[in-house]
Design the sequence.
């Protein structure tokens, strides 16, 4: 991503070797591991793994998770956890189904309503977090559970089937280049998030607010406003993910959304070890999502049981956090090493 | 522990053999030396004062002893036993040293008993049951022995400030008690500016406690800024200057002038100042009317174009909070801020920036810049909206601008893509200064602008600030670094307990004049 920051030409006054940016091959480590994983599975299960059907399935099936994770990295970039995203996703799917199937609304009106309802969750989260200065971890855990309760209430705790086919058609059933359409939506969102993060003032302010609230505040950034908005964005995008979810299944059940929470966090944290180390970034998140599904699919095709998912996602989250810690302390040591020769000079 | 009397004997008369001896201790941060080789010895049964200007190395020494920092060289011996840094995370606590820091380290909701028991339980194994009734008895005895009258079941937030300080002291002393109660060795208690947050009239109570400790055969190392306190309670005093020991004196027979002399060094240093103050008829760029904060109490102040106003005082006198109050980063409790004669209704950092008032905070690493981001990113923050093309940030333009700033201010390395945290303190400060100067401010509020900055960069920063002032900017510089004020300020306001105690102008600003104003006696 350095292409957008033209390398400064005139560094003639650079008196220190440390001024050269370290190459950091770790940035691409996960991509390498991913390629190796892909190759290994292709050799072990050549008849099922490297097939168009399987690849298309892997790409398409992860769109919901990817969209959800792309929403989640917005508050994460601002230094806040949002544990309510999975419930919000589920709420959105249920609202679409209830309004469309039970209330007979037009499907697109129902979709818009679902996304607005989802954003309300973010409004409430953001209000409590910034107004009362409470740890977002606790607030979103609580609100997420409240949302889960609301889901049971509006859905009568049953799975609602028969969502208008129009929604499924725009998500799943009419693939482009053999890949379901929802994959392209996720990629489009990835581009948008990347642009906002790297090329807008909003994205940079989010970064500063997340790195140091004090620095941001003293530089005139409205930190609480920004945190509030980031909660609304993550809830809104979770709502979009819910709509896609409802479209891919043509139904909505009151419980399955919760299963997305941990994979989303795993993808975000693993993604922060790729491309831009130590920063939550959309392309890293994308790579992490597909790395995870490659591993899981490959193992399942080799005959592993369903539980391999939990092992893989849970393990990946913990390993990702350890990795970012290690990379950070490596950076510290490198800094120390750079400073010493300067002292002698 | 083995019997140490024989080794102690070799270093002098047994009774005055030091409990703690520090020899030639050295420590540098990023190449900037904080301790260039300090010596100090603390004997049993004495209260030993440690004095020195800001940055003289007092707190670095304490932090090395407490295990926060590792020393680069030198020796420390306790009870005659030679120890080498690093001392580990617990520092020298297991060797019989106790530390009471300025913030006391007490949890408001915990009880006195819980705090004290925590230390006793601290090294117990696993899930061993806490003997609460035994602890209660032990803590009661301990408090009684030192005549500290507090209820062991009182929570910390129910105590008065001085009671809290006394609990912290007894806790630090009592921490090691139980292991050596039979043959009690003297302990060394380090108090780091314990009186800054205490009401004046209660300080005496704390000092009485210190005297009881002394009678008990323990030693107290008292770090303070306050000469009166040092003269009042200590037996001997050591003064640090620029990371070296300037001298150790018997307190009896020393005068405050002797000590000021030691703190400041030679008297003949006098740097000629550039321009004189230009006060014109226009309203001041920024002024405060009856401004009141946590410490500042009804301050009136005018900042005019073309002048550097210094503001100083003892720690806790309120000078530290003035820049943040004026910037709107900290809510004032009362008073008004006026810009160009007009009242600013609700000052906020964003509003101040729009009006051309900027702040460079003292805590560079925590508040000035983000260490993990690049220099360019750190410099871009005030320009994100200004330097935008459509929705998009003009990164190329920002790159050029930060490159120019780095070159102009001689930031080394002059590479905007370098990580901010990799720069030395002085270069970080120059980069921040460059960022803010590019916003063309009219008022610059500085808080300890050269803390942790090496001599060379310090000169450059002074030059940059004077140049900006010559073009009509106004600068407020809050610092306890007198040399800096002598070199830079057109006038200096000395605060005491939140109020103006003295104002010194032009060539009258000397280190002596500042020191005598700051350390002037209470009644003045």
Sequence:
């Amino acid at each position: 991503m350095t292409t957008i920051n033209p390398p400064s030409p005139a560094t003639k006054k650079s008196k220190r070797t440390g001024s050269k940016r370290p190459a950091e091959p770790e940035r691409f480590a996960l991509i390498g591991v991913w390629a190796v994983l892909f190759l290994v599975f292709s050799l072990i299960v050549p008849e099922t793994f490297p097939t168009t059907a399987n690849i298309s399935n892997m790409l398409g099936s992860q769109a919901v998770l990817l969209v959800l994770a792309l929403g989640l990295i917005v508050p994460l970039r601002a230094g806040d956890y949002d544990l309510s995203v999975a419930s919000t996703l589920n709420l959105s799917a249920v609202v679409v189904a209830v309004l469309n199937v039970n209330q007979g609304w037009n499907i697109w009106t129902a979709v818009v309503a679902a996304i607005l309802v989802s954003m309300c969750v973010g409004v409430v989260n953001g209000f409590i977090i910034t107004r009362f200065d409470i740890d977002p971890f606790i607030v979103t855990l609580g609100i997420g559970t409240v949302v889960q309760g609301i889901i049971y209430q509006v859905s009568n705790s049953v799975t609602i089937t028969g969502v208008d086919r129009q929604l499924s058609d725009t998500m799943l059933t009419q693939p482009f280049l053999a890949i379901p359409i929802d994959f392209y939506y996720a990629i489009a969102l990835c581009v948008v998030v990347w642009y906002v993060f790297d090329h807008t003032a909003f994205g940079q302010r989010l970064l500063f607010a997340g790195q140091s609230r004090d620095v941001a505040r003293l530089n005139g950034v409205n930190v609480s406003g920004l945190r509030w908005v980031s909660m609304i964005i993550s809830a809104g995008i979770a709502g979009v993910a819910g709509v896609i979810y409802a479209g891919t299944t043509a139904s909505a059940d009151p419980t399955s959304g919760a299963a997305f929470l941990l994979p989303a966090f795993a993808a975000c944290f693993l993604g922060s070890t790729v491309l831009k180390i130590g920063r939550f970034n959309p392309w890293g998140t994308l790579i992490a999502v597909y790395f995870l599904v490659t591993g899981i699919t490959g193992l399942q095709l080799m005959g592993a049981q369903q539980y391999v998912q939990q092992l893989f996602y849970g393990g990946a989250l913990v390993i990702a956090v350890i990795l970012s810690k290690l990379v950070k302390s490596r950076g510290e040591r490198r800094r120390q090493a750079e400073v010493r020769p300067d002292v002698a000079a | 522990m083995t019997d140490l009397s024989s080794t102690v004997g070799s270093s002098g008369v047994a009774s005055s053999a030091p409990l703690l001896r520090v020899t030639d201790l050295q420590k540098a941060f990023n190449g900037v030396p904080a301790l260039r080789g300090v010596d100090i010895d603390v004997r049993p049964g004495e209260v030993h004062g440690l004095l020195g200007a800001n940055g003289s190395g007092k707190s670095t020494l304490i932090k090395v002893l407490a295990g926060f920092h590792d020393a680069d060289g030198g020796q420390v011996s306790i009870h005659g036993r030679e120890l080498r840094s690093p001392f580990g995370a617990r520092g020298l606590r297991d060797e019989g040293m106790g530390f009471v820091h300025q913030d006391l380290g007490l949890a408001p909701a915990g009880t006195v008993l819980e705090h004290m028991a925590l230390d006793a339980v601290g090294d117990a194994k696993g899930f061993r049951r806490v003997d609460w009734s035994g602890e209660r008895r032990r803590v009661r005895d301990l408090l009684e022995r030192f005549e500290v009258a507090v209820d062991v079941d009182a929570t910390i937030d129910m105590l008065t400030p001085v009671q809290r300080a006394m609990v912290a002291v007894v806790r630090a002393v009592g921490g090691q008690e139980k292991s050596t109660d039979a043959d009690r060795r003297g302990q060394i208690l380090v108090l780091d500016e314990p009186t800054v947050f205490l009401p004046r009239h209660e300080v005496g109570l704390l000092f009485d406690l210190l005297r009881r400790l002394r009678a008990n055969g323990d030693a107290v190392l008292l770090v303070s800024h306050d000469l009166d306190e040092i003269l009042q309670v200590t037996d001997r005093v050591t003064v640090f200057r620029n990371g070296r020991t300037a001298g150790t004196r018997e307190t009896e027979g020393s005068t405050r002038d002797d000590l000021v002399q030691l703190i400041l060094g030679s008297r003949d240093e006098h740097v000629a100042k550039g321009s004189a103050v230009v006060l014109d008829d226009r309203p001041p760029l920024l002024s405060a009317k009856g401004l009141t904060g946590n410490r500042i109490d009804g301050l009136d102040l005018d900042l005019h174009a073309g002048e550097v106003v210094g503001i100083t005082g003892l720690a806790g006198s309120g000078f530290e909070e003035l820049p943040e109050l004026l910037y709107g980063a900290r809510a004032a409790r009362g008073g008004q801020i006026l810009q160009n004669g007009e009242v600013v209704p609700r000052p906020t950092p964003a509003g101040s920036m729009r009006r051309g008032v900027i702040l460079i905070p003292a805590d560079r690493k925590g508040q000035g810049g983000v260490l993990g981001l690049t220099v360019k990113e750190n410099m871009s923050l005030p320009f994100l909206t200004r330097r935008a093309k459509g929705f998009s940030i003009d990164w190329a333009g920002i790159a050029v601008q930060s490159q120019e700033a780095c070159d102009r201010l001689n930031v080394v390395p002059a590479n905007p893509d370098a990580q901010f945290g990799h720069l030395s303190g002085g270069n970080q400060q120059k980069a921040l200064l460059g960022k803010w100067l590019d916003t063309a401010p009219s008022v610059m509020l500085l808080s300890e602008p050269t803390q942790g900055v090496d001599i060379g960069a310090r000169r450059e920063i002074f030059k940059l600030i004077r140049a900006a002032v010559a073009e009509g900017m106004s600068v407020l510089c809050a610092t306890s670094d007198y040399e800096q004020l002598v070199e830079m300020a057109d006038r200096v306001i000395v605060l005491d307990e939140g109020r103006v105690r003295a104002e010194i102008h032009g060539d009258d600003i000397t280190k002596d004049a500042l020191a005598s104003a700051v350390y002037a006696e209470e009644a003045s």
